Please model this.
Amino acid sequence: MNSRLLEQAVGELSKLPGIGRRTALRLALHLLTREKEEVRQLADALDRFRTDIKHCSYCNNLSDKDICPICADASRDRSVVCVVEQVGDVMSIENTRQYNGLYHVLGGVISPMQGISPSDLKIDLLLENIQRQGIKEVILAIGTTVEGETTLFYISRRLQQFPDVKVTTIARGIGFGDEIEYADELTIAHAIVNRTALK
Model:
């Protein structure tokens, strides 16, 4: 590139997940076409987001207050908590409009290869909330990766100390529109084990 400033902007943008150098270049050049005030507002919004964002003291979701809007909503079913890996999972489930309970964001999954142990996740906070709040059901909505399965197994073992709490997991198996022929063996196995009755 013929501009050090452009190279620096592309370098920073390409650090974002899913953004390669070509996309970063397009974004940087697009920003050059915008009004300076627009670009300043974007930079200010990102700066405020990074500086002022907090983690909800109850569920570890992102919020601009100590308690996130979901936990503060009195109309939600407070007897059920859905455990997810990341904040993006909360958004995905909320978009379905099929769940009205509370959430708990772990902040990742157990991954010895990446140096992430159970103590690095918000598992103890989950257990404290179950004990304090009288939770009746914990839904484990964790990904089907090897790390996700390890995390699911670890948490389910820790939850055995609450015999009155029902522990469930989201259904796993063949996705809508998928063909069995192209699914891997683990996915097919989950689909068979988690089969449902038609009548």
Observations:
- The first strand starts at residue 54 and ends at 55.
